[in-house]
Design goal:
heterodimer, A: 427 residues, alpha+beta, FAD/NAD(P)-binding domain, D-Amino Acid Oxidase, Chain A, domain 2, 8-stranded mixed sheet, 7-stranded mixed sheet, 15 helices, B: 87 residues, Alpha-Beta Plaits, two-stranded antiparallel ribbon, 2 helices
């Protein structure tokens, strides 16, 4: 077990790394582990005291395409989901439910702090160094090449390739001059609650299903679709995590999220299922929020922003690899981290860290079975139009979620679409 | 030391002024006030100001919405700011 509270790699002034990875969230450690295993002198820099303690995300991740060492390595997973339930709320009560279930786990729930700490541990075991409580405040540039970072202590740490896994704010890539900040129309603010709950109650109420609750705008329990997310309920081992999101800006208007999100929750807690079934068993233990990118891939100016430059590769949310269908970017962070590490290893072998060489990253992610679709799928965005009419919304809403299932599983689990389709209910 | 003002979340002091308003750019629209769940901002004399960052989750919603780029957003000093086991 690594003592992350006091994790501090000793670095001499002149020491230079092959690769510096900024951010020990979900993607950073995956890239660092692969680089370290290839014999590269690799450092991870993390601004939190412990990896993952600053990551807020209700999290269920499909593990089909995750690196084998994650799938087989006994990571700290909370619970397996064997499907989803869609509840459509009308008049404060559920008036339509659809259960989508599979004979195998479709995704796994996890808390960010333990999971990211575990991922960072695997990177350290592979030989990567880790410096926690260290904020990267700027990049070191030499001519047109990124050559390292400046820490909040004013220290320059040099490297040949910087892999930035900083998340959607992406301050270093902006400072490096290769990206611009995302527009607020593509950023959702998510208010999340975490409840203690007896695992027997979770089993009984949720039956190993994640729940998504839809509602028409007049219910005011969630943002109208297209302006935000459905209500998510993630049942974990002995806790329940809930999330309601609202876009920061929609149709030219900045949303009053400071008031709206609390209101949605107040109204949601008055719905019958919460009041009578879930609420009496749930004890609040944490409240938190974070911004989450969604649809950045659908805006051409953001879709086309570079994902690499001279001496720098971006992964995960920093590269715009959010998922326009599900909003779940963690699997994408893993896929892109894996590809970026391969390209970094090759570049250092070839002694060429130019943007022209690193552009191989673009070729590889564009050939990935999931990444291109996940940043360009319009299905969920189109729900905004569907919500004008209740029947259309139910039909299109459910079809949209099913479509993301069709896309994901056959490609990654080698199942035929017809086999998957047979498991899904008719709408 | 760290304090807990919102359940399940700790704030480690010593962040530094990691969010600043650039007064000459601020047009007083109040968008930062509208979006901030931590209620970190106020308005006076048609300019936004930082009331306090003790409830800041470093989400940068203020920075994303500001139409004038009048918010100087950076990360808190390493090892400080919010932390949670339940994210």
């Amino acid at each position: 077990m690594i003592d992350f509270y006091h994790c501090f790699a000793e670095v001499s002034d002149m020491e230079k790394y092959d690769v510096i990875v900024v951010g020990a969230g979900f993607g950073g450690p995956v890239a660092a582990k692969k680089c370290a295993e290839a014999g590269l002198h690799t450092l991870i820099v993390e601004r939190g005291q412990r990896p993952g303690e600053k990551v807020v995300s209700g999290t269920y991740v499909p593990l089909f395409g995750a690196p084998e060492w994650i799938r087989e390595g006994n990571p700290p997973l909370e619970r397996a989901a064997y499907g989803w339930r869609y509840h459509f709320i009308k008049g404060g009560d559920i008036y339509l439910s659809i259960d989508v279930s599979f004979p195998f786990p479709i995704s796994h729930g996890m808390y960010c702090r333990p999971m990211c700490t575990w991922l960072a541990e695997q990177a350290v075991k592979a030989g990567a160094e880790l410096r926690t409580s260290t904020t990267a405040v700027d990049v070191v540039k030499d001519k047109d090449f990124v050559k390292g970072i400046v820490t909040d202590e004013g220290e320059e740490l040099r490297c040949d390739i910087l892999i930035n896994s900083e998340g959607l704010q992406n301050l270093l890539a902006i400072k490096a001059g290769i990206r611009k900040k995302y527009i607020p129309d593509a950023i959702e603010l998510c208010l999340e609650y975490d409840f203690e709950m007896d695992s027997a109650d979770i089993d009984r109420i949720f039956d190993n299903r994640i729940e998504f609750h839809f509602a028409m705008p007049e219910e005011k329990v969630i943002a109208p679709l297209g302006q935000g997310s459905v209500v998510y309920l993630f049942p974990y081992g002995n806790s329940l995590h809930t999330c309601i999101g609202q876009f920061l800006k929609h149709d030219g208007e900045v949303a009053q999220t400071s008031k709206l999100l609390e209101e949605y929750y107040e109204n949601y807690f008055q719905t019958k299922r919460w009041k009578e079934v879930i609420g009496p068993k749930a004890k609040l233990r944490a409240k938190m929020w974070d911004t989450c990118p969604l649809y950045v891939g659908l805006f051409p100016e953001m879709h086309s922003m570079p994902r690499c430059g001279n001496g720098i590769l971006l992964i995960g949310d920093a590269a715009g690899f959010e998922d326009t269908s599900s909003g779940a970017g963690i699997a994408n962070a893993w896929y892109s981290a894996d590809i970026a590490a391969d390209v970094a290893i090759e570049a250092l072998k070839a002694k060429d860290t130019s943007a022209a060489f690193l552009a191989k990253y673009d070729e590889l992610w564009q050939a990935h079975p999931v990444l291109p679709r996940s940043i360009s799928d319009r299905g969920r965005r189109n729900l905004l139009q569907a919500q004008k009419d209740e029947a259309t919304m139910v039909k299109l809403g459910f079809e949209q979620w099913f479509n993301s299932v069709y896309d994901l599983i056959p490609m990654l689990n080698e199942m035929k679409p017809s086999e998957i389709k047979a498991m899904l209910p008719k709408v | 030391m760290a304090k807990e003002a919102i359940p399940g979340v700790e704030w480690v002091p010593g962040t530094g002024d990691f969010i600043k308003i650039i007064e000459e750019k601020c047009n007083g629209c109040g968008d930062c006030v509208r979006v901030c769940l931590g209620k970190c901002f106020g308005l006076r004399q048609r300019k936004a100001y930082v009331k306090g960052l003790e409830h800041c989750f470093e989400c940068a919603a203020c920075w994303f919405v500001c139409p004038e780029d009048a918010i100087d957003f950076s990360w808190p000093k390493g090892g400080t700011g919010f932390r949670t086991e339940f994210g």
